[in-house]
Amino acid sequence: MNAPWLGWLGIVRLGLVQTALGAVVILTTTTLNRVMVVELVLPAMLPGILVGLYYTMQLLRPRLGYGSDVGGRRTPWIIGGMCLLSAGGVVAAVATAWMATATVAGILLAVVGFLMIGVGVGAAGTALLTLLAKRVEPARRGAAAMIVWVMMIAGFAVTATIAGHFLDPFSGARLVAVTAVVCAAALLLALVAVRRVEYDLAGARPVEAAASASPTPFRAALAQVWGEPTARRFTIFVFVSMLAYSAQDLILEPFAGVAFGLTPGQSTQLAGLQNAGVLCGMLLAALAVSRLGRGRLGTLRSWTIGGCIASALALAGLALGAYLGPVWPLHPSVFVLGIANGAFAVAAIGSMMHFASAGRRGREGVRMGLWGAAQAIAFGVGGFLGTAGVDATRYLLDAPIAAYGAVFAASALLFLFAAGIAARVERPATASPDGAGTHSLPDAMQPEGNAP
């Protein structure tokens, strides 16, 4: 039977899964990173490789999404992913503590832990977004995207604050204990959040239909999705836009120090200002495209394109600031960049929810997994290319400040390219029983005017 739309409370409930995901990920990718480098005096390359393994495992997202499509339900994959993620977090913490006395053995165990973390995040995250795509009313998807992402950021903030308090005075045993408590609490929170969420209004039976007795093989299903123009173009858009976003993310604070003389504390505050802008941009876009008020101001499509263009303009301003120096209004520019990035991110995630059901029926998980994999690859590659671009340009031009400006300018061009791709993503159709599209999307995703 058809699933009822989730209300705001149901959306917040699923947002708690994102909170749980964020709580474990922030502890394993930042706190363990610091312990390895500072307390254990190990090469910074080590946590870099381990986090790289985490990103590599995101390539499994299409396969994991396919598994949830075949099974016909998403909550088992969310629960299974959270179990694996939580167990991986504990294993990684034990491995980090073990490195103090048996470095090689600890590193080998850490590899296992981070592989578990990567697969767990991929399984739970892909199934969660697919479930949201299928259960959230089209007019609410922009607001839903904002809610779940803000709740993930809340998971980052709350975990960092509370765990940081209990980690002092530091010891390996304390690290393992704090991590175990956080992982157990995150798993319990996720279990409560998804309880009976896939059941019908009477609470009697699952709302998803049973899986087919002879499902299409994964490679054939992936080829079918890639053969859909909308899914293929949106995948390219996700990759290019996230490449542009991540290329500037790791160099902003060093740029503030080199070009404007900001201290480490001041550059950290600058990053906080950018994150505040991101939250404002998310809220602005979500309210604009939802029906919380008297009407909508634009569509997810227009906010996606507009957010990319605004991000490009903000990055072009920073590139100009690299040449003008202290006279350039750095803080307002960074805040505007945050607003543009936040608006683009919420609109793009909301668009994912719309496009997930566009095309052949029963491929929602594969589409969401494909886009998640594209995002993860772009994020890892973009961060490396941004920092490598600064080093290469600095070496060639012997001008450190100009090197940052060049990377900002390149990121701006990538955002403009992404906006062009987003404008060309075709208006998809909802799937008919035989898999052919017959009906256009709700007006929240319709193109405006004569836009391509």
Please supply descriptive tags for the structure shown above.
disordered C terminus; 15 helices; 452 residues; Growth Hormone, Chain: A; two-stranded antiparallel ribbon; mainly alpha; globular
Description:
With 452 residues, the chain is mainly α. It folds into two domains: 190 residues, Growth Hormone, Chain: A (Up-down Bundle), CATH 1.20.1250; 231 residues, Growth Hormone, Chain: A (Up-down Bundle), CATH 1.20.1250. A hairpin with a 5-residue loop joins strand 1 and strand 2. The two termini are 36 Å apart. 50% of the residues are buried.
Walk me through the topology.
Blueprint: H1 8-39, H2 45-56, H3 61-71, H4 75-98, H5 103-135, H6 141-166, H7 172-194, H8 218-226, H9 229-249, H10 252-260, H11 264-289, H12 300-324, H13 330-355, H14 364-397, H15 400-424, E1 429-431, E2 437-440
Antiparallel strand pairs: 1-2
